[in-house]
Design goal:
28 residues, rod-shaped
């Protein structure tokens, strides 16, 4: 079950990364 949770978490991180990548000059 932890592996499935990690997959969902990594998917969430990818989604957030895509949002930040679409906006220029938002990198921390």
């Amino acid at each position: 079950m932890i592996l499935l949770l990690a997959l969902d978490f990594s998917r969430l991180i990818d989604a957030v990364g895509n949002i930040f990548t679409q906006k220029p000059n938002i990198r921390l």
